[in-house]
Automatic annotation (TrEMBL):
InterPro entries: CAT-like_dom_sf. The lineage of its organism: Eukaryota, Viridiplantae, Streptophyta, Embryophyta, Tracheophyta. GO terms for molecular function: acyltransferase activity. It comes from Eruca vesicaria subsp. sativa (Garden rocket). This is Uncharacterized protein. Pfam families: Transferase (PF02458). Belongs to the plant acyltransferase family. The keyword Acyltransferase applies. It comes from the Eukaryota. Keywords: Acyltransferase, Transferase. Gene3D superfamilies: Chloramphenicol acetyltransferase-like domain (3.30.559.10).
Amino acid sequence: MVIKPASPAPRDLLQLSTVDVYSPPKYVSTIFFYKSVFGESLEIISERLKTSLSETLSRFYPLAGRIEGDKIICNDEGAFFTEARTYLLLQNFLKNNPHNTNSLPEFLPTVTPGEYAGTWPFLSVKVNFFGSRSGVAVTVSISHKICDAASVLTFVSDWAATAKAHESNDVVMNIPTFASTTIYPPHHSSFQSSSVGGLYPFRGKCATNRFFFKSSKIAKLKRRATSETVLVPTRVEAISDST
């Protein structure tokens, strides 16, 4: 299904920056695993994710658009959203597959790249529900054409805060700024986008690894990452700060 912004985009076109112009139209995916909250049905979780994603897209409206040449058309076509379910328990999956990365592609959204990147959605999300309401895996795939790792984390953090606000009725308003073009303006209006086919020969030469940290080590990293600006760093912040 397609999730569209809760409110229309405030502008029609956004110019790609020099960095984005020459970035390959390749998806970058991140998988987040969550334990389910006791008593919540899958239907409630699903609806909350969809509603909060729609609200978040209103602020991150370029992700709901499409690309044409060196511009983003903010036409509110929306993001792709799919769901899948398995009888496998989350704890069993994490316990039995500590070093196996071959199963991770099953959590990724199915996107078939075409010759023309303008047909691709910038954002594709897949929600995987584990058996017996044991947990959820949320995979976020965003086109590297318009997002880097920092941008992805900013979007995911805002989406998570918006979803959490639905539980506590808190108001979340985090307005991002899309100013990369003013910092890195394109040299000229005509350009040749990076070739998608040129990326494929490198398949098979990449290695995927999973890193595990003991709770005692994470606690030590959190203490080391504490600062005046971040008094109580999260586990992700502590580990990211050390890498």
